[in-house]
Amino acid sequence: MVYRFSRCKVFMKKLLICFFLILILLLINTSTLAYTVDFPYGYEDYPAWIYCYSGFSSWTLQWMDSNCIQYSSCGCGSLLYSATPYLSNDAYTLGNNVNEVVHVYLDPLVADVDVLGITYMLAYVEPDGSFRSIAEADIGFNTYYPIGDATAYSNLYDVPSIGLHELGHLLGLGHSSNPSASMYGSFAAGETRRTLTQDDILGLCVMY
C-alpha cells in the first residue's frame, strides 16, 4: 500500500508540474500576442481580387503579386489574388465592388492624416453598430512621401512593406504592437518588413 501510494504521489507531482508548465506556456503565448482584428469576419467574399494601377512600375506590380501570394500561402486559406488586366485609371472609386490599388497624395497638413499608405473600406455593420466584415477596400500609396525600394535607397519608405501592411488591413487586420510585425503601425525610412510574421498570421487565422 505504501509503495502504491508513493507512486501515486510521484505521478501527481509530475502531473502538477506538467500542468503548471502548460499554464506558463499559455500565459507567455497569450502575453506576446500583439495583433489586433478590426473586422472579426474579415473580407466577406474571399479570396479578394486586387486590381493595381497599370502605371505602377513593373517592380511594384511584381511585389504586389508576391504580397498576394504570401497572404494566400500563409496557412489561413486562399485569401488574395492579384488580378489582370490592371487598372487604367490612377484613382479609386469606393462602391464599385473593385479592390483598387492606386496612388494618392495626402499632405498631412491638409488631409489631417499622416500616413504612407491608406485603405478605404466599405463594411458590413452589425445591428449594434460594430463592424462585421469588409465588402470592398481600396488602397492608396501616399506620394507625399518618397516611396520606393528601401533596400536600394535608405531615404525611401519601402513600397513592398507598405503594400503588405495595407493588404493586411484589406483582410481585416488592425495594427500590431509588435515592432517586427508587418502590421506594426509605423515605418521608418530605409526600413523593410516584407514578410508576414507569426503574429500577423495568427491574426489572420483567427478570422479565416
Molecular structure report:
With 208 residues, the protein is of the alpha/beta class. It folds into 2 domains: 1-31; 48-207, 3-Layer(aba) Sandwich (Collagenase (Catalytic Domain)), CATH 3.40.390.10. The protein has 5 helices and 7 strands, in the order αβαββαββββαα. The strands form 2 sheets. A 5-stranded mixed sheet has the order 2-1-3-5-4. A two-stranded parallel sheet has the order 6-7.
Write the layout of secondary structure elements.
Layout: H1 2-31, E1 48-52, H2 58-72, E2 80-82, E3 99-104, H3 108-111, E4 117-125, E5 131-142, E6 147-148, E7 157-158, H4 159-170, H5 198-207
Parallel strand pairs: 1-2, 1-3, 3-5, 6-7
Antiparallel strand pairs: 4-5
Helix pairs in contact: 2-4
Please report which band the strand proportion falls in: under 5%, 5-15%, 15-25%, 25-35%, 35-45% or over 45%. Answer: 15-25%
Name of the level-1 CATH class of the largest domain: Alpha Beta
Major sheet: 5 strands, mixed
C-alpha termini separation: 54 Å
- Structural class of the secondary structure composition? alpha/beta
Order of helices and strands: HEHEEHEEEEHH
Assigned CATH architecture of the largest domain: 3-Layer(aba) Sandwich
- Overall number of strands: 7
What general form does the structure show?
globular
Residue runs with pLDDT of under 50 for 5 or more positions:
1-31
Largest beta sheet: what is the strand line-up?
2-1-3-5-4
Rg over CA atoms: 22 Å
Into which percent range does the helicity of residues fall?
25-40%
Q: What number of structural domains do the residues give?
A: 2
